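User: Before I run my own analysis I want an independent prediction to cross-check against. Here's the chain; please return only the structure tokens and, at the end, one sentence I can use as a sanity check.
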Amino acid sequence: MSLDFSIDPETRKLLEEARELGRREVRPAGLEADRAGAPLPPDHPYFARFVARGEGRTRWPGPEGGQRAAAARPATVQMLLLAEEYAYWDRGIMVANPGVGLPEGNVLALGSEAQKERFLGPFLELDRPRWACFAMTEPGAGSDAAAIRTSGRKDGEGWILNGAKCFIGNASRSDWILVQATLDPTKGRAAQRAFFVPQGTPGLGGFKIEKKMGLKAYESTSFTLEDCRVSGDHLLGGEVRDTSRAGFKTAMRTFNAGRPVIAANAVGIGRAALDEALAFAREQDRLDDPRVRDRIEAMARKLRMARLVCLRAGWLADREQPNIVEASMSKAMAAGVGQEATTLGMELLGSRAARGDHLIEKLHRDVKAMDIVEGTGQVQRMIIARHLVQLPR
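Assistant: Structure tokens:
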């Protein structure tokens, strides 16, 4: 079966809209947050305009279904192309945008109809900027998600949660947090489940927005759960006999689906660095220098290679074919290429790079996270190697 990455008219239109929005709204907002060294506040006019455009809504069709059933997940290749374009303008703002975000897939896959109506319902027609988030990472459990220690203990008709989470995007402003916890630390992955924890629940607190090197437009938050009680109907999917699908594996499918998106983000950031480097070299009348042309050629060649690997992972996903290796390859490759592109751009800037006022310098700080989030580059290489030598997953 031949690969076809031609862009259909609908996707081309969406990309043109994203390009115009990025130029007019996204990049200015990202630069504002970076210069302020802090996320945009929830009441920032940018978010109000985002909601007014009808964005940030859930894909859940609602209790009646009907016409909104068409809000199904877009084709993966289309989604990757849009993720690349938005990251070109500002990846931090892309993550800061209101919406259900990362936990939506988990809730759509496992949530009861009552849970969908309660937790996704407010995102059908946004009356204001709203956020939700998924809390997996802990101080002692980053890439090794199976090592989480946040506990969920049955207490009568409800559950008591205790633990600490860190680097959770948009946590302090979220309407609710989907918290991954273990029911029995001795049982490893098999005992993990997810719980809805609404903002303001007693015991949920200690929110601290971390200071980051890059991607300052959105908050990465630490928080604690201390004897935090939620009712029984806040257990995602309810109590089931077979928990293999209800906990860890579903969470991992969320991250597996997200890895090509992170790869596309890295390509988008790298593309921005390439364009800025080319513009800088032209302004400085340095395009006749073979060393400058060599750097620009290397950036363009490697970015195109990374994009093709990323699109292949999406192409396989659209055909419901296994793509675990390709997804990991795309993230491992694109994150490195994105970093290399911004580094080459910094070299072209020379002493100008040290001033900290050029977009390439910001991109250089932003792109590093692409090698870390949703499984580090080292973890991706482990996944690829285990498949190549046919070790158990």
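Sanity check: Confidence is low (pLDDT under 50) at residues 66-71.
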